Amino acid sequence: MYAERPSRPQPPLDVLRHVVDVHCHPTDSEVTAEAMDNLSITICAMSSRQSDQLLVRDLANAYPDKVVPCFGYHPWFSHWISLEPYSSREEHFRRLFSPSAEQQDTFARLLPHLPDPVSLADVLTDLRQNLSAFPQAMLGEVGLDRAARVPIDYFASLRELTPFTVPLEHQLAILESQVDLAVELGRNVSIHSVKSHLATLDLLDRMHKKHGPRWLQISIDLHSCGISPETWRAIEKRHTNVYMSLSTVINGRSPNHRALIAACSSHRILVESDYHPVDQCAERTWDMVLAVAEIKGWFVETTWMEDLGEEDWGVVRRLEKNWKEFRNGNHGSLLRSKEVVRKLP
């Protein structure tokens, strides 16, 4: 459940239609036709496990002008994926969690709530089909999480956590395979990284080395980014195709997000809600738009005017430009263009 908090006035629709929520989870809650009809912004709708890939697909088909579909498998559900053949469901999860003698009772309580594992090969086949069906689709939500503990029943109203975590090596194998597919298909990626920042940075370095120029054809978003400003500066310098997005629901818990916004290049920042109820995504995303405007010193548009010079742009227009560059990718060409401009007399 999300905490109630006072709502802020939102701008006119001609401004809001230029706002993009780059990361949300509408299909984790009921999505009504009324809520979608009233949606005033564009949303990037994430999937995270086998059961919601189809839900995101259906939502994108129903509202193609409002929804950018994102298909992928979240690290919280990576234990539901098998990397090698198994003789039984119990064998797969026992091998993954290695329960100690003291943890046997907990493991026995957990096992009935776990699904039959799906093979990574089947996951990638399904992912390829979904991404191929939507030329604008992204890979997401995918990533690494070293803090998450496996709950007894993920779908319970109050989740009871076990001591079990998914080994990082297992998460990495699944993440890297998904990112390889994104590079092959030329799709942008929304990445979750919690307590895994060094591993994520290593993955970015490895992907760049592995894929070369093709890596720079796609964009990467570190969503609800919680790294230090110093680490972000290092990423920004090393990877021209990596952006960050921030949300009030996650980043607003810590004052660090203000320093992170200040440290981020004006051209690499995006905004998100990271929210489930779609009727609140616009409001939550707008909260972060206002935070970026305040920290960056950008004015907030109250009406939309065409044909403005860049020196007259407000926060919404600047973030929209960032989104378009993120969406279009091709950062190798952008880098070469900037280098040519710098060399001109």
Task: Give your account of this protein's structure.
It is built from 13 helices and 10 strands. It is α/β, with parallel strands linked by helices and 345 residues long.
Quick overview of this protein structure:
The protein is of the alpha/beta class and about 350 residues long. Helix content is about 40%, strand content about 10%.
Low-confidence stretches: 339-345
**Proportion of helical residues:** 40-55%
- Main beta sheet strand tally, sense and closure: 8 strands, parallel
Number of helices: 13
Q: What's the SSE pattern?
A: HEHEHEEHHEHEHEHEHEHEHHH
Q: If strands are numbered along the chain, what order do they take across the biggest sheet?
A: 1-2-3-6-7-8-9-10
The radius of gyration is 21 Å
Global structural class? alpha/beta
Arithmetic mean of pLDDT: 93
Distance between the termini: 58 Å
Q: State which percent range the strand residues make up.
A: 5-15%
Q: Identify the overall geometry.
A: globular
Write down how many β-strands occur, each being a DSSP E stretch of 2 or more residues. Answer: 10
Provide the descriptors you would attach to this structure in a database record.
345 residues; alpha/beta; eight-stranded parallel β-sheet; two-stranded parallel ribbon; 42% helix; globular; disordered C terminus
Question: Which helices and strands, and how do they pair?
Answer:
Elements: H1 13-16, E1 20-24, H2 33-38, E2 42-45, H3 53-62, E3 67-71, E4 81-82, H4 89-97, H5 104-110, E5 118-119, H6 120-133, E6 138-145, H7 168-185, E7 189-194, H8 197-211, E8 220-222, H9 229-238, E9 242-246, H10 256-263, E10 269-271, H11 281-296, H12 315-328, H13 331-343
Parallel strand pairs: 1-2, 2-3, 3-6, 4-5, 6-7, 7-8, 8-9, 9-10
